[in-house]
Amino acid sequence: MTTLLATRAVSRRFGGLKAVDGVDLALAEGEILGVIGPNGAGKTTLFSLIAGSLAPTSGEVLLDGRRLSGLPAHRVVRAGVVRTHQIVRPFPNLTVAENVMVGAIHGARRAGGGARERAEDVLAFAGLADRAGQLPATLTLAGRKRLELARALATAPRVLLLDEVIAGVNPTEALALAALIRRIRDERRVSIVMIEHVMPAVMSLSDRVVVLDHGRRIAEGTPQAVVHAPQVIEAYLGKGAAEASPP
Ligand SMILES: Nc1ncnc2c1ncn2[C@@H]1O[C@H](COP(=O)(O)OP(=O)(O)OP(=O)(O)O)[C@@H](O)[C@H]1O
Q1: Pocket of ligand 1 contains residue 90 by CB under 6 Å
Q2: What InterPro entries does the annotation carry (predicted)?
């Protein structure tokens, strides 16, 4: 198992608050790694540290053993690590196709080929070809989530960081988005770290799951193992819950 992306004791303080506190994480090539944890656990901050939009207070982020932390966000994208945002942020005045083109220009630079062909391919892959000429505001939430995925995928990433892509959409759309995420890994060979609150999606998609609480990694393992870990039950439900819950 080759480690593609790793964090080593990565930490970030905001004043007196340790939002991320000495977290070690390793993503293998071809893996889907789930990141879960209660609200405020530090999940999004961890993504910002990996993506270069926040600098770590200490520790480091490595891609292929080379230091990624310290690079500005656009250089991290160029290195092949791209994130999506919990609150989707398309360019509102650009069409769906133009939004994807922005990513495809980066992707063509990184991986070769033409940006337009890349954008068209990704639009079709993400099921957005028939929406190409529309503005993002005309899409449903699930459609905007697809657009967020397509924009990121168009950059030809090696690692995708997905921040709550599935949360908030209806169950049918959730299944379709989960299938799309799996195809991104299987067909596009992109390794994925996924923050997600929708447990069935985390359980079915993740090869491994890391659990954060108060900025610390409190558990790591198969989805089945972590949801039954006493410290995870306590983090979600409060102290004493682990003993009270059925086996
Ligand atoms: N820019 C910031 N300045 C100050 N505090 C911050 C900042 N960003 C995050 N925090 C704090 O750091 C902690 C971790 O926040 P973060 O958003 O990473 O958690 P999260 O696990 O992603 O939560 P959620 O599941 O609610 O999205 C929280 O206490 C939050 O208030």
Answers
A1: no
A2: AAA+_ATPase, ABC_AA/LPS_Transport, ABC_transporter-like_ATP-bd, BCA_ABC_TP_C, P-loop_NTPase
